[in-house]
Design brief:
With 137 residues, the protein is mainly α. The protein contains 6 helices and no strands. 8% of the residues are buried.
Length: 137
């Protein structure tokens, strides 16, 4: 096989060409040499690498974390990869706790709105607005 052009690589990996170029600028994907008067060609390893990056992003890893994981790709440093994943898991659990707290507050506010009738100040808007400072005049 002669290899894939950047557009074919993008198609196989389900990304756009600019994403590939962005990953190359970030050092996540190598840019192959360009032959004299030729076109750069990519291989299946590049497709696999792009699919890895996208899969890692889908489960919440940042591109910096993906870069760290890619550096550990030789399989000998699984404990380092586990440490990165444990940090990510702790972050996800913290965000979940924050979201559960937010859900509770919003549930209460929506309930207050549902109980209010007539021309009264909206409890949701009232709860979100800071109290007005009284001037001394």
């Amino acid at each position: 096989m002669q290899g894939l052009t950047i557009s074919k690589l993008a198609q196989e990996a389900g990304v756009n060409v600019e994403t590939i170029r962005f990953y190359q600028r970030r050092g996540l994907l190598a840019e192959p040499d360009k032959p004299l008067r030729g076109i750069r060609r990519y291989g299946q390893a590049d497709v696999a690498r792009l699919l890895f990056i996208k899969a890692a992003q889908r489960i919440g890893f940042t591109l910096d974390e993906v870069a760290q994981l890619l550096q550990l790709d030789d399989g000998t440093q699984c404990s380092d990869a586990r440490t990165i994943a444990e940090r990510k898991l702790a972050d996800v659990r913290k965000r979940l706790a924050d979201l559960q707290r937010i859900e509770g507050v919003l549930t209460q506010l929506v309930g207050r709105c549902a109980r209010r009738r007539g021309k009264v100040r909206c409890p949701l808007i009232d709860a979100l607005q800071p109290p007005l400072a009284h001037d001394g005049a």
